[in-house]
Amino acid sequence: MSTSAQLRAALADALTEDGTLTDPAWRGAAETVPRELFAGSYFEQVPGSVPTRYRPVRQGDTGWLRGIYTDQTLITQLDGRIRPDDCADGSVAGSPSSSSTLPSLVLRMWHQLDVQPGQRVLEIGTGTGYSAALGAHRLGDGNLTSIEYDPVVGGAAASAIKATGYGPRLIIGDGLRGDPEGGPYDRLIATCSVRHIPMPWLHQMKPGGKILVTLSGWSYASGLALLTVTGPGAATGRFLPGYTSFMIARPHDRPPRPTLALMPGDERPSRIDPALIGTWTGSWVAQLAAPSAERMGAGAEQILWDVSTGSQARTASGPDEGWTVVQRGPARLWDQVERAVQRWQAAGEPHQESFGITVSAAGQRVWIGTEDGPGWDLPI
Ligand SMILES: C[S@@+](CC[C@H](N)C(=O)[O-])C[C@H]1O[C@@H](n2cnc3c(N)ncnc32)[C@H](O)[C@@H]1O
């Protein structure tokens, strides 16, 4: 049976081989920080369960340690309250609300942040504390502050970090407000996603400082952006290659809604294949175009629902060929999405890495290609 140190070394080898770990100093962090102290018990998805159910995996269970050193996200809380140790044996349904992000993603993001020794870093979303411990190992305790929204999660992370001997500054609070007392920072890394860039962050960064954050929304489409702060309250940046998603920051999550009831509306042919908004970047474009809507469905049968106005759109394959859409309500959701997808198609349907973002006091805009290219304002 392999020990924790052996499994850590094997994971570091695998992440070096696949090109994730290129900086020996971050490799040293990966080889040193024991992930099992941060995600001691975790949830495992019950295969084939609909809606998804989870069962707890605890120390001593078969495969527990191997699971921890597999490159996977370990869910550690459901619905903002259920933790694996609260769970009697058996399974439970719920939505993941805290986790230990998969090591390859944590380490890739630490590399992408381009943080240099001596720089001061603010992390949003302490979670289990695993990524904060990696950061503290590499940068030194005094250079890292991490904020967690959930006091129970933050308390567990503080105990785990203390047990490993690290001592970054830990705050329980809303990371969207940043750390007004602790700035200015050189770098900000968020391991929860946001609907727009919180303005307090920009005022707590040094000029030229960098922010690495996933932009998402109420349809849960995502893109990872690296922004440079260009002045007080201003930043610009580009989206990065790959497919990164994070749970959305709790204050940015969509409001609770009733069970969907589809209503009649006006029908017309659709000018685009609805399946396009089920693709990684297509769903992102649709979310930019209709940020107050939630997207459901699959393939040709897509549903958009904006609870605040009661607006709905639903698509289907046409009777002969093509597709139809039924829309109702004041926000013509499909009109918005269709126009946006056509602009994206005209640009050659690029992946998010061809998109950029500009933030200023005047607003926040995501664009394709260049700042004056086709774009959409983010909801603020
Ligand atoms: C994916 S987990 C973080 C993973 C973590 N970095 C790790 O290595 O374990 C996301 C965390 O963000 C937290 N979170 C959500 N909204 C937040 C907010 N507004 N401020 C700070 N933390 C937040 C969640 O409670 C959750 O623990």
TrEMBL record:
Listed Gene3D superfamilies: Vaccinia Virus protein VP39
Alphabetized InterPro entries for the sequence: Methyltr_grasp, PCMT, SAM-dependent_MTases_sf
Cell location: Cytoplasm
Keyword Nuclease: no
UniProt xrefs under SUPFAM superfamilies: S-adenosyl-L-methionine-dependent methyltransferases
EC number: 2.1.1.77
This protein's UniProt keywords: Cytoplasm, Methyltransferase, S-adenosyl-L-methionine, Transferase
Enzyme class: transferase
GO BP, sorted A to Z: methylation
Keyword Hydrolase applies: no
GO terms, molecular function: methyltransferase activity
Family, as annotated: Belongs to the methyltransferase superfamily. L-isoaspartyl/D-aspartyl protein methyltransferase family.
Record protein name field: Protein-L-isoaspartate O-methyltransferase
Source organism: Streptomyces gossypii
